[in-house]
UniProtKB/TrEMBL annotation:
InterPro entries: 6-PGluconate_DH-like_C_sf, 6DGDH_YqeC, 6PGD_dom2, 6PGDH_C, 6PGDH_NADP-bd, 6PGdom_BS, NAD(P)-bd_dom_sf, Pgluconate_DH. Belongs to the 6-phosphogluconate dehydrogenase family. NCBIfam families: gnd_rel, PRK09599.1. This is 6-phosphogluconate dehydrogenase. Keywords: Gluconate utilization, Oxidoreductase. The lineage of its organism: Bacteria, Bacillati, Actinomycetota, Actinomycetes, Micrococcales. Residues 162-290 form the 6-phosphogluconate dehydrogenase C-terminal domain. It comes from the Bacteria. It comes from Naasia aerilata. Pfam families: 6PGD, NAD_binding_2.
Amino acid sequence: MQIGLVGLGRMGNNMRARLRKADIDVVGYDTNPDVSDVATLADLAAALTGPRIVWVMVPAGKITDAVITDLAGVLSPGDLVIDGGNSKFSDDFLHEAQLAEKGIEYADAGVSGGVWGQQNGYGLMVGGSDENIARAMPIFDALRPEGPREEGFVHVGPVGAGHYAKMVHNGIEYALMQGYAEGYELLAARSDLVKDLPATFKAWQRGTVVRSWLLELLVLALEQDPGFEKIEGYVADSGEGRWTIEEAIEHAVPMPAISASIFARFVSRQEESPAMRAVAALRQQFGGHAVKPSADG
């Protein structure tokens, strides 16, 4: 099995390593020559045997648009492009139509797993035709976690469905992180009573209904930086949460928890907040997202 991989950043580079460990031949391209296997996208296309599969793992929006346009110029009819970035689902319809003019197939993949994916595998939500998903299944199997396929992979529906599912997944993620963070702030406020805050969260990891991987990452973050004194409580958002709320409004679906978590992030950009330090630390733990060092850290 052979695949081209465009984008070798935090996740893309780890995905290349995981795929190669599964004996899949990966030809990677990145604008950073230090990590790229080839010099140009044209070289990447030339290094692959047709019909080709090319996975795009670059930031959503204009950068993805540019890569799709460039690939349309170097690939051939029958090739398959998979967008594994965090693109908005509506962009998938445009990219599918753009590539279809050249006879190139298209699929989308929502990918969760962050910087831990190389070790643990990636949760995959994919959209596309049955034929294209079946064609790329060895790649999906190599990337997903070990165990039953249905516990780490889902063919959600046609093109756009994968990114739609990932969008909602990230909206839920926003609300979960906010819940943990607010709990952290209240516990921290009663340091006169709660004498070991990190141990309290650690004790929740087994046997409680709030246990989760996010909770484990919060414990890890607290062990590395008790009190989160080294980072500011400034939390960015990458788009999926906003898109989830937009879809909720469009379809009259009430989402008070997720919408509140989005607005809480906006608050974090205006004033310091212990809860937002916790959210910032969580995003750094699971996704390697940048944080703002605190002035006193």
